[in-house]
Amino acid sequence: MKNKLFVMSSASGAGKSTLQKMVLPDFPDIKYSISATTRAPREGEVDGVHYFFKTKEEFEKMIAEDALVEYNYVHGNYYGTPKSFVEKTLAQGKRVLFDLDVFGKTNFDKVYPEATGILILPPSGEELERRLRGRGTDSEEVIQLRLKNAVAEMDYAKTKGKYEYTIVNDNVERAADELRKILKGQL
Predict the structure, then answer these.
(1) Neighbours of 96 (CB within 10 A)
(2) Hey, CA dihedral for 76, 175, 166, 100, is it positive or negative?
(3) Mean pLDDT per segment of 10 residues, for the chain of length 187 residues?
(4) What is the DSSP letter of 47?
(5) Of the N and C termini of the chain, which has fewer Cβ atoms inside 10 Å?
(6) Strand 5-9, strand 95-99: pairing
(7) DSSP classification of residue 113
(8) What does pTM read for this prediction?
């Protein structure tokens, strides 16, 4: 039986989004999980495609109604996984790939302990900073917050997280090949 749930975690800027965009077209049976967030959309992001964009009040209502598998307050915004999305996707017989921060993964594991964890690491802190700056989407204040949080997140992942696989994203093609093998059950 193939694993049904895969959770990728990393510091912001380590390459999760790039890897999932490269790999998912090869797996029509895997759907990328869409998270809910109170973060403002970046240029080109579409509600219901990239995220379910919510107001703080809407998100807090979802929390109160127990409508989320997991949620966290990260980088000044709420992020969470709607239960309805996961249940509907699994009922369709599809597998799901999630992009969760390391703290969200811990909460997710309480509901779905069978999920396979994949930790994506940047090759270095300097490279992580270069990637964050290269996006051109965040203020200096946000970049500094993401870099500070990255240290704590990766320490937490390595000491308290449940990750069966670790991919160092030093070469995006090699990292994508490694992710493909994990999703195929070849590693």
Answers:
(1) 19
(2) positive
(3) 81 84 95 93 90 96 96 88 92 93 88 93 80 79 82 84 92 95 86
(4) B
(5) N
(6) parallel
(7) T
(8) 0.82
